[in-house]
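Co-fold these.
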Amino acid sequence: MKIFKQLLVILGLSFGGELLSNLFNLPIPGSITGMILLLILLLMGVIKERHIAETSDFLLGNMGFFFIPAGVGILVSYQSLKGNYIEAISVIILSTLLVLAVTSLVTQLLIKSEKKHDRKVD
Amino acid sequence: MIEKLTDTHLFGILLSVACFYGFSYIRFRSRQSCVNPLLLSIVAIIIVLSLTAIPFDNYMKGGSVIHAFLGPVTVVLALPLYRQRRLLITHKYAILGGILAGVISALTSVIVLCRLFGLNELLERSLLPHSVTTPIGIGLSDLLGATEGITILSIIITGITGAALAPFLYRLMKIVHPVARGIGLGTAAHALGTTKAIEMGETEGAMSSLAIGVAALTTVGVVILLQYMSWY
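Predicted complex below.
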């Protein structure tokens, strides 16, 4: 019964997100509206962790399964790759390395400057 | 014959469950975290469909049932973000600043590199959300009018690349702070990067996990801003 109760909350929020996005013509996809809605309700304390925990953890822990059909969808859309496999993979690898470098470097520099700033305040 | 037999919702669901279970079992048995059940399942199903006379639409009958759960899977991403919210208290500005810089460099680097390599616009749009966690990436892919399948594969390649190369890159660039190491991995390589961050240490893992959600929402915000301003 607990699982159904949790499923009700999660499916309801998911549907609510779709509804909000469609009704108000929001630029955000309904699924993401639903996520933001859940985050707000959790922060406000309207929904408690125990209302969704077990079912959410199951979905989160096995997330990969739900992406299989979308991935297989490449069968009908690979034409847009037009044989540019190596170029596309290069873009992904180079961009990933850049993001990794920029994010960690900026975070580290900002933490160091926080420390210096703290010392001055002291 | 086989075309008729597989013309049921159960076929696609059964094939997906069988593949995912099989590769998850191999991963569990071999203790190799690089065995990716999602990627291997996609490849296996594509091979099955190509080698047999089973039409793509027959697989998708069941596939669309699984696909319908993407909404709820995206919604529950709010929970880990909520659980990790206290981590933001220390180093709030450093974390948010680092993630924002990472998100902007992800989007601009894809646009610049794709144009440099002469890739078409549909491909460019499909690769744009490559650093984001998969459910949000699919949402963004739809929003951008791109191809879900290519976006998913780019997200998986990103995760594998980030997890494999982060240790070398961090050594090379002298990234020693555990918060910076975790935030970098989570922002660049989502959940797959987080498994590597957890290996590095507890703080790295927690920060990486926080960064997945924050980076995803930041990316959504920046993409919508770009579209709103008609810059993209």
